[in-house]
Amino acid sequence: RGLLRRAPPIDEMRARLAAAKWALVRDFSTALRKDVVVTDRATAHRLLVRGGAGGAFCNRPPTSAASSVLSRQRHHNIGSAPYGPLWRAIRRNLVSEVFHPSRLRLHAPARRAALRGLVADLREQCASSESNGGVALAAESMHAALFSLSAAMCFGDNVDAARVRAMADAMEDLIRSLVGLSIFAALPALTELIYRKKWNKLVSLRRQQEELYLPLINVVRDRRPSGEGQTYVDTLLDLLVADDSCSASGGSNAPKQRLTDGELVGLCSEFLGAGTEPATAALQWVMANLVKHPDVQEAVRREIDAVVGEDAEEVGEEELGRLEYLHAVLMEALRLHPTVPSLSRQVIPEDHVVLDGRRATAGTTVQFPLERLARDKTAWADPDEFRPERFLAGGEGDGVSLVAAAGSAGEIRMMPFGAGRRMCPGMGVAMLHLGYFVVNLVREFQWTEAGGNMAVDLEAHVRFLNVMKRPLRARLVPRRKTE
Ligand code: HEM
Q: What's the CA gap between 383 and 393, in Å, rounded?
């Protein structure tokens, strides 16, 4: 009886057992992985841009994307696919069919609708919170706006708002679960057996995605072939891909087939997640820095008034190329707060990767920590300071390109979108969305610091992404009258 009384309650014992089991699995996998971290800018350039002599040094370690994990690394999206014909086909489709400038222009109405929705939402929050000084939950509103934009580009702009919200919630749930799931990528069979609960959770999240996405995919399928497809799903339905297992080279003789429903769901999930999450984090970092630096915020406004004029209804996306100071602000925020914390590549037998004078063995994972590389004292003066002027003509960052291979003189000074063949294919559209939202949000509102636990805190929370530890809240004062 005494023993029973002293024993912790059964739930607590279960929790302790689960924690011990988890720690064991995590340690086991860490012990198996061979990680090298590259912090030298010239080495990063040599490896990422020039590749591993012989091979391309273009593979990632197994990822925790749901499709890949649940299929034991057999089904892939762009980010998880091994370097080969499948990756080439689905990446080329995204870059040249969806993100080609002529196609991107077709989504201008969706961008305008997302911006208008965001501005209206922020105005309403200001009005209803007037008693506490117009503090707005900016982070949540930005996420909703960017997610609805990604959903419109993926499925079309007629998806009802409730379903868009359900997809956004499901994505949030998935990302929260992914944080603890890298273990599934490393040791799928073992963890499926002993970490049943997490596995089942992933299965149910994936099922939820299928229930949400497949009816929308079928709507697109049913209305074809009438007219030019404009959505991501349209392009995927047209796509024929070679099976990686049939053709290592991707030659034209390899049999080609349409994507399965499972693959379509995985690719849509990647499009919505990769298209929304890092961009929302980046938008928050930019606006947070503008709250902390009212002089910079004012300078952005002066540039808008000079270039676009005070009376224009909005700053159109075609004006962004003329806003040099705005560009400098975006570059500086991306340098200081790269929203993807680290790039990773995995050495395969064909790669000849030399590190510290020795050839890295196949299986070695090479990490490139982005913030550390971009805050290198030997590359930037006062690297931790937010100073957009450094990117203006004559500044130390003048000419630094986001395509790290271009104009980088054999070293990498920043690469928030990665580098080499696997760099982010969404860079152009991400910069368009960031510029368009920032410039119009600055024009519509005066952004100032809220007090207490609503104050802007630039501390980062680095897990899956590098996000603000305290989501952005700000006191907003509308600057323009509504009609
Ligand atoms: C501010 C926004 C964004 C940031 C900071 C960002 C950053 C990155 C980074 C650092 C990588 C890894 C690159 C490498 O390994 O060299 C990446 C990959 C990727 N990103 Fe983005 N990204 C953003 C927006 C987008 C958007 C809008 C999309 C569109 C759907 C997108 C789709 C992807 C995909 C598919 C990959 C994998 C590429 C591959 O493996 O070939 N990203 N992104």
A: 18
